[in-house]
Amino acid sequence: MDNIIVVNNSILLNSLTKLRDKNLKSSQFRKEVSNIAKILLFEALRNEETEMRKIQTPFVESDFPSLNEDEYVLVPILRAGLSMMESCLKVLEDAKVGFLAIKRDETTLESKVYYERLPHLEEKTVIILDPMVATAGSITKAIGIIESHNPKKIISLNIVVSKVGAEKLSKFKNVKFYVGSAGEDLNDKGYIVPGIGDAGDRCFNT
Ligand code: PRP
Ligand code: URA
User: Fold this and answer.
1) DSSP one-letter string for 21-70
2) Which of 4, 114, 178, 182 has the fewest CB atoms within 10 Å, counting from its CB?
3) How far is CA 137 from CA 21, 26, 54, 76, 125, in A?
């Protein structure tokens, strides 16, 4: 499972513990999700290639390393992935954003794609945003769609991944997953336990 990186960071763990509290208000839930998303993004891009850019500092003109931000495409999976988008966009201000709306049927747990709006992905690094990977049905659909657009690289940021989900993700050798927790159980309704509950409902107060 060397494509799944469990990010070991005390601030992230502190936020994740807050998310597990069923009494956390929606506004606080979104805030902690945003914190975690940013930490996962920092880790995912830690060793990204930079290019030198000429900058006039207050004293001299010189070349400094910089990221080509518009080579990145964030793809939040609606709904819950939206809660990770803002903080990532604050870090990568010039990133592009594409959208995939995917919903699990609550009885069959089958995921259905009901909206797809992606920019050109060729030569781009795509960063999938979805807090939860339970059966991995939704993210598998997302990766399939994204791969069909031939991006340069695919990264996925996920807060909680179940054990079953992690086994499925390990088969996507060309995708790197940066996650807050991996290996939690799935209950008979397809929810991650202990987990953080229904992330979409908790983010959007429904
Ligand atoms: C949640 C979550 C993931 C999916 C994970 O979305 O945001 O996309 O479930 O489950 P899976 O790994 O078993 O597919 P959901 O389908 O509940 O939609 P929502 O975000 O609109 O609530
Ligand atoms: N989707 C969620 O939002 N939470 C889970 O625990 C499983 C799937």
Assistant:
1) -TT--HHHHHHHHHHHHHHHHHHHTTT---EEEEEE-SS-EEEEEE--GG
2) 114
3) 26, 26, 45, 16, 22
Cα 160 to ligand 1 centre (Å):
12
Q: Using the atom order of ligand 1, give the atom closest to the CA of residue 131.
A: 7
- Residue 135's closest CA among 190, 199, 196, 79? 190
Check if 199 has its Cβ closer than 6 Å to any atom of ligand 2: yes
Query: Can you read off the two tokens belonging to residue 28?
Result: 């606080």
Q: Per residue in 148-165, pLDDT tens?
A: 999 999 999 999 999 999
Give the integer Cα–Cα distance in Å for 5 and 160: 12
pLDDT per position as a tens digit, 54-78:
999 999 999 999 999 999 999 999 9
Parallel, antiparallel or unpaired: strands 51-56 and 153-162: unpaired
What is the pLDDT at residue 10? 98
Residues 6+ apart with CB under 8 A from 61: 54, 55
Counting beta carbons within 10 angstroms of the beta carbon of residue 99, is it exposed (0 to 12), middle (13 to 18) or buried (19 or more)?
middle
Cα distances from 71 to residues 21, 53, 130, 132, 202, in angstroms, run 37, 15, 20, 25, 32
What's the token pair of residue 19? 């998310």
